[in-house]
């Protein structure tokens, strides 16, 4: 039925009143869209479940920036989730995700991390998973140098924002800001951190508004956020469907390596594994006394070696510890893990002590950092390993922060002890 709209006697518009036929068609279209989304999710989840035990080659980035593969991994009670950055992404013999691929001691490891992933991004990944983490154990990898990096508690500079942009996930951000399970207080504190990387939200007015409203919770802003919340949840669901579609597309194209057959759990000769890792690390380091991988030493260390000599005396080193901002984000991460009922192990790399000596940082000063981290863990009542005993071992790390095969052998022993309640 057509209706004419008149103003002062003149017809200015003509429109057709919706009929029952139109409404029925719209309803059918919406139902079809919903059914299609459910079918996509079901098909994708089946494919993700089949792939979760494999080494996903094409999906390395999607595993970190999406949620589908992480949730698929968590569906297996015998999977330990590993969260970190480049230490998980850098291919090294005896790396945990490969070593535990066939569940030699009864569990597999599923890694989530990319080069340059900040702790703030891992925090969002944990929050986004929500109740899927309840009752689960997770390992969080930290580099000890992170406790010496000062950063502004206000806005970050363009270089720092660019680093965050490289690993930013719109899905994780939306799932965090519109989480139905996270406490309002913790959500507000996380939003205050995200305000520092506000340029990341330029492409999404909805997320940008949510960050600003949560970070400054005036009565009016609380009302505005409540009005945005339903649209935020719709955005999360839409991004989750997109995540499923990307994963399904990659798996269809063969982006997964079928894992080796699961073994019967057996004791591991950890001493022998450490010895094998040590031999591999020594073979990879033939041109320097610091245990650096030969190519890394030639490219990154040797040209700057003389400039590094005595460049980091104890006074400078300890000042960096006092100014480090990582403690704030670490506290939020611990709170999020507790709210969602997860049990974490924090795995912190040691210093490259032999080169720290060359730079003028004494073992006593480094011990101060290890002690500060251990004291923090005791106050927070969390499990943490720092591997301080390997501070002077040149073959634990291949560079400043990445574990060598020997380092991974030692990490793996700690992960196994954590899973089987044998961690000291």
Cα distance, first to last residue?
78 Å
Reading the helices and strands in chain order gives: EEHHHEHHEHEHHHHHHHHHHEHHEH
Mean pLDDT: 83
Strand order of the largest sheet: 4-3-5-6-7
Low-confidence stretches: 2-8, 10-16, 29-35
- Sheet with the most strands, sense and barrel status: 5 strands, parallel
Strand residues, percent:
5-15%
Q: Structural class, from helix and strand content?
A: alpha/beta
Count, helices: 19
Shape: globular
For the CA atoms, what is the radius of gyration? 25 Å
Q: List how many beta strands DSSP finds.
A: 7
Residue share in helix: 40-55%
Can you give a write-up of this model?
- With 424 residues, the protein is an alpha/beta fold.
- Helix content is 53%, strand content 9%.
- The chain has 19 helices and seven strands.
- It has helices at residues 20-51, 60-65, 68-74, 86-89, 96-99, 119-129, 158-165, 170-177, 184-194, 205-215, 219-252, 270-283, 294-301, 305-308, 314-323, 326-339, 353-358, 363-380, 405-419; strands at residues 2-7, 10-16, 79-83, 108-112, 137-142, 343-348, 383-385.
- Strands 4-3-5-6-7 form a five-stranded parallel β-sheet, sandwiched between helices. It has a two-stranded antiparallel sheet with strand order 1-2.
- β1 (2-7) and β2 form a beta hairpin.
- The radius of gyration is 25 Å and the shape is globular.
- Residues 2-8, 10-16 and 29-35 have low confidence and may be disordered.
């Amino acid at each position: 039925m057509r209706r004419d709209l008149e103003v002062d006697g003149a017809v200015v518009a003509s429109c057709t009143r919706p009929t029952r036929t139109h409404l029925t068609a719209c309803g059918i279209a919406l139902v079809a869209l919903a059914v299609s989304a459910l079918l996509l999710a079901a098909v994708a989840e089946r494919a993700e479940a089949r792939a979760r035990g494999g080494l996903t080659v094409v999906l390395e980035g999607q595993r970190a920036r999406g949620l589908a593969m992480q949730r698929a991994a968590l569906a297996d009670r015998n999977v330990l989730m590993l969260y970190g950055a480049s230490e998980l992404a850098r291919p090294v013999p005896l790396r945990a995700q490969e070593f535990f691929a066939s569940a030699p001691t009864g569990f597999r490891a599923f890694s989530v991390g990319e080069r340059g992933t900040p702790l703030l991004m891992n925090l969002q990944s944990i929050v986004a998973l929500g109740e899927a983490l309840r009752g689960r154990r997770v390992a969080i990898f930290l580099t000890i140098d992170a406790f010496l990096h000062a950063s502004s508690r206000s806005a970050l500079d363009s270089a720092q924002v660019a680093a965050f942009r490289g690993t930013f996930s719109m899905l994780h951000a939306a799932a965090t800001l519109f989480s139905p399970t996270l406490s309002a207080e913790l959500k507000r504190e996380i939003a205050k951190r995200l305000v520092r990387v506000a340029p990341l939200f330029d492409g999404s007015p909805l997320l940008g508004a949510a960050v600003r409203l949560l970070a400054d919770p005036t009565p009016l802003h609380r009302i505005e956020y409540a009005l945005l919340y339903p649209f935020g949840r719709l955005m999360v669901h839409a991004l989750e469907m997109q995540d499923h579609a990307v994963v399904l597309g990659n798996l269809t194209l063969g982006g997964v390596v079928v894992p080796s057959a699961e073994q019967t759990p057996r004791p591991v000769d950890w001493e022998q594994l450490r010895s094998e890792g040590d031999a591999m690390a020594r073979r990879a380091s033939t041109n320097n006394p610091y245990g650096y991988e030969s190519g890394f030493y030639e490219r990154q260390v040797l040209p700057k070696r003389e400039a590094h000599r005595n460049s980091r005396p104890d006074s400078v080193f300890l000042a960096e510890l006092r100014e480090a901002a990582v403690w704030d984000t670490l506290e939020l991460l611990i709170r999020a893990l507790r709210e969602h009922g997860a049990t974490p192990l924090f795995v912190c790399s040691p210093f490259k002590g032999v080169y720290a000596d060359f730079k003028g940082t004494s073992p006593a000063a480094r011990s101060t950092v290890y002690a500060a981290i251990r004291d923090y863990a005791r106050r927070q009542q969390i499990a943490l390993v720092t591997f301080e005993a390997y501070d002077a071992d040149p073959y634990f790390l291949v560079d400043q922060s990445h574990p060598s095969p020997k380092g991974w052998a030692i990490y793996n022993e700690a992960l196994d002890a954590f899973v089987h309640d044998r961690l000291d």
